[in-house]
Structures are given as C-alpha cells and as structure tokens.
Amino acid sequence: MSSFDLVGIGMTSQRTRDRLVKRLRDHGIDDERVLEVIGSLPRHIFVDEALAHRAYEDTALPIGHGQTISQPYIVALMTAKLLNEPRDRILEIGTGSGYQAAVLARLVKRVYTVERIAALIERAQSRFRALKLRNIRVKYDDGSLGWPEQAPFDGILVTAAAREVPAALIEQLAIGGRMVIPVGDDDGQELRIIDRTPDGVREERVEFVRFVPLLRGTQA
Ligand code: SAH
Known about the structure:
By secondary structure, the chain is α/β, with parallel strands linked by helices. The protein has helices at 3-26, 32-40, 72-82, 99-105, 118-130, 167-171, and strands spanning 61-64, 67-69, 89-93, 110-115, 136-140, 153-158, 173-185, 188-197, 200-209. The protein has six helices and nine strands, in the order H-H-E-E-H-E-H-E-H-E-E-H-E-E-E.
C-alpha cells in the first residue's frame, strides 16, 4: 500500500465515522457520551488490515478463531444500557478484538476484561497500548467464573451468549450494580438487563440479538 493510500484512509475515516454515528442516532441511540466515543475511537485498528475498509460499517466482522467484533449498534446499545448511571468498575466477559473494552475504558475508571482465547488477548493488548488506554486489565480465563479477586463490580457486560446467566457473575455484581447479557442458544438470544437490588435481582428484556456462544474452559 502506498503512502498516498494511507493518507486517503486517514482523511476519509473521520467522515465515515461521522456517518456511522448518524446511523446509530437514526437507530435510536441517544447517549451522547457513547456516540462521542464511537465517533472518535478508531475501530479499524481492531480488525485485520484486509477488513479495515469495512470497519465503519454498522456490521459485525470476523476477528479470527471463529469470533467476531460486535456490530457498532450493539456495542452502543449495550454500553448505553450498562452506563444508565455512573459506574466506576466494569467487568467485561469476552475481550475479543478489545473494541468494546476500549469504548468502556473511555467512559469509566477501570475495565476488567476476561477472554478464553489466548491469541486474541495478545492482539487486544497491543491495541490498548497503541491507543494509550491504561485503565484496562485483561485476564486469560473462562469468563463464566468472573474475576472474583477484583469483585464486586458496578457493571458487568457479557459479549457472548449464555444459555443461562452464570451464577458467579450475579455474585460478583455490587448491590446497585447492573449486568447486560445476551441469553439464549445458537438460534438467537435476548439481551437482558439484570439489576442487583438489596433484596435480589430485577430483570428487563431489551431486544433480540445474535452473539457467538459463551464457551467453557480456555483455548490457546
Ligand atoms: N467484546 C468483543 C466481542 C467478541 S465476540 C469485541 O468487542 O470484539 C465474543 C468473545 O467472547 C470471543 O472472543 C470469545 O472467545 C469470547 N468468549 C466466549 N466464551 C467465553 C468465556 N467463557 N470466557 C471468556 N471469553 C469468552
């Protein structure tokens, strides 16, 4: 690729990012802080170079190992639902490309993210370094177990589909904390909001979504 092409990408990307933000607005995303972050964070860094030209389309894209970077609309929706009120410490399950964690890192004090595929972790961490995002901690583990040493969390965001809400994650949610999680099987899931109250949990169903499954164990 010539340096002329690189400049070309740089010049068009702000315009294409603005177009993405407009599309999210048109689809009902009205949280200005979330829109600002999505409009300024370079999503093309989170996908392979061969797919960089599609990074600002409102679509999920493959990131290798059978996994995907979520559709920007879903990232925006989940982030806005999670941050309905100020929350400092967030746990994400399913680091993947690192994009969702990076969006969160611009909005909260600290992000803890767990990923079960080692190869994805290395790439995500180099992206965090390149973007100077120093408030993200990554763990290689089965995220259904959460991150007990760092609990409780003010918010938990699960970016892979669970058959059932993992009990460990509810336990690691602070009183007043909120979890956003897709629940269902391979045919589709519904996005649920789970608020932990002093006397239990309150659940709300948002909309139908499609995520890769939350799997058990780890993988190199
Ligand atoms: N948040 C990611 C989306 C990645 S797709 C992004 O912004 O790019 C879902 C990710 O969840 C995949 O990387 C997959 O490996 C991971 N995953 C699936 N089951 C998991 C588990 N039990 N623990 C941790 N990560 C898991």
